[in-house]
Write a structure and sequence with these properties.
Radius of gyration: 26 Å
Bound molecules: ligand NAX, adenosine-5'-diphosphate, potassium ion
Largest sheet: 11 strands, mixed
Number of helices: 19
CATH class of the largest domain: Alpha Beta
CATH superfamily of the largest domain: Ribokinase
CATH architecture of the largest domain: 3-Layer(aba) Sandwich
Low-confidence stretches: 521-530
Strand content: 15-25%
Strand order of the largest sheet: 1-9-18-17-16-15-14-13-10-11-12
Structural class: alpha/beta
Helix content: 25-40%
CATH topology of the largest domain: UDP-N-acetylmuramoyl-L-alanine:D-glutamate ligase
Subunit structure: Homotetramer.
EC number: 4.2.1.136, 5.1.99.6
Organism: Paracoccus subflavus
Distance between the termini: 18 Å
Pfam families: Carb_kinase, YjeF_N
InterPro entries: Carbohydrate_kinase_pred_CS, CARKD, Nnr, Ribokinase-like, YjeF_N_dom, YjeF_N_dom_sf
Number of strands: 18
Length: 530
Amino acid sequence: MLNGTEVLTTAQMRAIESAAMASGAVTGLDLMERAGAGAAGIILNQYPSARTALVLCGPGNNGGDGFVVARHLHHAGLDVRVGAAIGPRHMPLDARTMGHLWLQLGPISALTCDVMKDREFPPDLVIDAVFGTGLTRPPTGELALVLKETTCLHAGVWGHHAPAIVSLDCPSGLDLDTGNPLIRGQPLMGASAIPLPELTITFHSLKPGHLLADGPEYCGRVEIVDIGLHGSRAIIKVAFPQWESLRKPPGHKFSHGHALILAGGQAGAARLAGRAALRIGAGLVTLCPPEPIAPMPPDALMTHPIDTPLALEDVLRDERIRAICAGPGLGTGRAKDMVPAILKSRRAAVLDADALTAFADDPRELFKLMHERVVMTPHMGEFGRLFPDLAIRLQEDARYSKLAAAQDAANRSGAVVLLKGPDTVIAVPSGRPVSTHQVTEAVIHRADDVPWLATAGAGDVLAGIITGLLARQKQPLEAAALAVWLHAQAARLFGPGLIADDLPDMIPAVLRGLQKSQSSSSVATALPMT
Ligand SMILES: NC(=O)C1=CN([C@@H]2O[C@H](COP(=O)(O)OP(=O)(O)OC[C@H]3O[C@@H](n4cnc5c(N)ncnc54)[C@H](O)[C@@H]3O)[C@@H](O)[C@H]2O)[C@@H](O)CC1
Ligand SMILES: Nc1ncnc2c1ncn2[C@@H]1O[C@H](COP(=O)(O)OP(=O)(O)O)[C@@H](O)[C@H]1O
Ligand SMILES: [K+]
């Protein structure tokens, strides 16, 4: 069982809203009131000196939330103006009701660019309630112009008076399943065509688009309002470890697992992986180059040459070998020979780098031997070699998410797929066809704050940490999710100047930090969530 924060796709969010309403526990109007009131509370708290607000309301329920925020800001004493894309009587029922409640307090202007250029009303706050989870296509016409206008507010018509933009649920125009902006054509000169808020206030839980692709850059800070929905069965998580799951129970070295790291002629990358596997607590780690190599520190890393698949099969008769890592520095020729023997042994395994590239010509050859205790760890280039159609779709279809691509890849290959990058996603095979919005079990990890991780060999260390955890008998999804967090946290603790060689040696500090922070009860708050 993974600990972490839940993330709901937009379809899952709609499903739990509908279920709550169908059960009679709550009405749509109640949910909208809680959403808007909660958002207004956060806004008032974070912008205590704001005196004026301009609320931009779209045609759906996101616009309804906007009316609720407008009402609460008005009651708190702010001078509030409201612009709406359509009149309340044309809006969905709950939004219409909220629009009529606002009309008892103030007028509604047509939402055009003129509203944004009223020199008589320079707002301290602009509340973006144009589109939320219901966005289905790129905004066009006047609304597209209004959204683009929000991006000019900083340098805009109000001179030095730059309002703070706050978006409800998401910056309008961002797809909350993918983190891609849905815009027609390319943004001009790198300028955004959708709002760039300081703060995004979402409801009940994060959505994938807050974490994937460009989402975090668009969203700014993200706050979540509890709207009293329960019983969600979210299976996407932003995972973070509990010390309990990493603590070493009493035992001897073999009870903590023996891991093999297959190496090529140059064993440098494999050494990085091996050192990481040792540091995360595998009982023994053996480096297996094709020929004997001179011993090098760390001495704790054993070596045992393995030259042929038959020799590997022979070594794997030892049941105490629990996990194998293949890929870092392996060479594609050797990988092609060895990987089938690894997979036939049915041992838990990590396939990375050359172990993936070796099968670019015929990925099915790899997939037909696959089993669910294998974790594949491609970066986007390697992913494209094994799943070219999915990689192309990711580039061309703004509504296809990295999460859906990883899940499609997991289903096709039969392995757990960890697709790397600043937004790393992990998906397990479900055996079920996936649609963009229906993910089964997955983890998202965002690591924008550690760009130093993008350094040669960092992926080898990640493969080694996963292998060490598999040797310690963690389940593949848990091993992968823990490893991604530990890896990023190691980089975070080291800071600028990091090279891959530094990462394994930061693991003890990461573990100590985890142990210390969780000896008190405030576990979740003590840990970075990314
Ligand atoms: N359903 C509920 O009870 C709740 C909904 N909430 C809010 O409701 C939002 C979702 O509401 P909706 O499903 O109405 O969706 P939105 O308010 O995001 O907008 C959808 C509306 O815009 C139209 N539309 C979509 N793309 C368009 C485009 N490119 N150009 C012009 N019109 C376009 C749709 O046809 C629809 O009328 C959430 O994001 C959240 O803010 C919250 O109040 C929580 C409770
Ligand atoms: N911009 C970034 N910010 C944070 N982490 C990143 C970024 N780019 C890559 N990473 C992470 O760094 C590691 C790089 O791995 P990989 O691309 O396999 O490199 P190598 O093959 O050189 O080891 C991965 O864990 C990846 O998720
Ligand atoms: K919005």
